[in-house]
Amino acid sequence: MTGGSFDLIVVGGGVFGLSTALEAGRRRRRTLVVDRGAVPNPISASYGPSRKIRSTYLDPHYTRLALEAMAAWRRIEAETGAELYVAAGNLNVSDGEAGAHLETLEANARRGGAKVRRLDADDLRREFPQFRRGRRALLEEDAGFLRATDCVTALRELAEAHGVRFATGQDATLAGSGGAVEVRTDRATYHAPQVVVAAGGWSKRLFPELGRALWQCQQGIMYLEGVPAALCRPAFVPYSGADTGFYGFPAEPGRAGFKLARHLVTDPIDDPDFDRRTTPTGFVEAAVGFLRDWFGLEPGRYRATCESCMYNLSTSNDFLLDFHPEMPGVFLATAGSGHGFKFGSVLGRIVLDRLDGIHSDRWTQQFSYEAFRTAGARPRLL
After folding, report:
1. Which of 159, 138, 181 is CA-nearest to residue 8?
2. pTM (2 decimals)?
3. Residue 265: per-residue pLDDT
4. Distance set, CA 131 to CA 53, 262, 291 (Å)
5. Which of 90, 95, 256, 362 could form a disulfide with 143 if both were Cys (CB 3.0 to 4.6 A apart)?
6. What is the DSSP letter of 278?
7. Which of helix, strand or coil describes residue 38?
8. 218-277 pLDDT per residue, tens
9. 142 within 8 A of 122, measured Cβ to Cβ
10. Around Cβ 214, how many Cβ atoms within 10 Å?
């Protein structure tokens, strides 16, 4: 593609960008997606075998939005014929120290209409004896995981079916141009009255003024191959450790290993292109200790591999979905904050409603640029 004019340009082909582009295509807007890599991109935050989908949140707004996203992913599955959303359940489990946390999750989930069930220590021993230290838990029956890379592929295919075009392998810069926004790459120049920047962890390369309000950090992941059947589907369940920050997914022999990761804030990184084959300092040691204590697993007995992904956090852990205050026509859709992927089935509606001036209760002031810039100095996690 050598350039051209569009109704909307989306910079970034991860789940935020693709959701936006698909919704724009559905609304019959001539739309272009520009991405610095391939789509799907192996180093993006939208790549991998699994992402959690759950409605158990401390903030009821996210609970409501997650339940809507679950239904929307089912519609996308029906459109594409692909299995994307595996409703294997999700177990928020505690060794007894996070009782108030679980109670709030339960209250919000029930208020939103989710199917949740409280488990005490006896229930856990009977239903999920794998969790040796579990004392209480909350099971969300319709939660589970999304096949992340397959979701990205499905969103791209649907977007293309609705006329969205793609320019990949092109780094973009932005500039104002006679009432429009100009998107320049090393191959072409494109114009549109509106541009949505959904560049994830690369957003600050386009907007350095976002500064420490947008915080990138490295998150470790461990995969174990050949684990016992008790840790594979369907015997095992996706889980979130309310006390430890560790979370994981069952193995699917022949498809995916037993996955363990940790939801926490680590030191900020300056280069979003860091080597994904590395892990944060201390992650492997902490993961080994968790596996021993909670599951009686010795990782050395299995085929273990480690890698990492990137969190792109706001300091409030809320998304940034708002117009740039100093660049007319530019809208920012970023700060997925380690929990944004599940909303990829509905996020495009939020963005397009804002672009089109349509009031919706899906958008909230906590997604505003003002809230983003005035949040605390260090991220907190939801």
Report:
1. 181
2. 0.96
3. 87
4. 21, 17, 10
5. 90
6. -
7. coil
8. 999 999 999 999 999 999 999 999 999 999 999 999 999 999 999 988 889 999 999 999
9. no
10. 25
